[in-house]
Design goal:
Length: 170
């Protein structure tokens, strides 16, 4: 967690450092900094001491970009897309058969959006294609590890954790 100054409204916000974004998205901090300068894909806020920090919407955008990059989209093309187009394209890609790593990213996005339909659809599709045991080993366990990391850096709220636990238990 970053100390973002004396503004009382900001003290209790969930914010992320560039290292947090790197850990959660798999995109190197150096790459994120270059994309900020070259493409303006994300615009960090700054603390009183000029340290970058990011909000939930920034994390969601970076996760969407990470998924699009894994699917072969170039950052220069992604940067030209509007925010709604990035979300739409990511949603479309989440609906097709993708690798288990991409399912983990898609589950993360559904969790952040608290989108039950999307979360269930991703899990059900993978279970139908690969079986329950394989889904547990290749998707759910790695997703829960990622969830644990998000809890450690304070990047998810209790609502997100409850959301995931409810749907995985069913």
């Amino acid at each position: 967690m970053i100390n973002i100054g004396s503004n009382s409204n900001l003290k209790y916000m969930v914010v992320y450092s560039i290292k947090d974004l790197e850990k959660l998205s798999g995109i190197k901090a150096h790459t994120l900094r270059i994309w900020e300068k070259r493409y303006n894909v994300i615009m960090p806020k700054r603390t009183n001491t000029n340290i970058r920090y990011y909000e939930d919407k920034d994390l969601q955008k970076v996760l969407n970009i990470a998924l699009l990059r894994k699917k072969g989209y170039k950052i220069s093309k992604i940067a030209e897309l509007s925010e709604p187009d990035i979300v739409r394209l990511t949603a479309e890609l989440s609906e097709v058969d993708v690798a288990f790593e991409d399912h983990i990213d898609a589950l993360s996005m559904a969790m952040f959006e608290l989108n039950e339909f999307k979360f269930n659809k991703i899990l059900d599709h993978y279970i139908d294609q690969n079986g329950f045991t394989h889904t547990m080993e290749e998707v759910i366990y790695p997703f829960l590890e990622k969830l644990g990391m998000m809890l450690m850096v304070g990047s998810i709220k209790s609502a997100h954790e409850s959301f995931v636990i409810y749907f995985i238990r069913r």
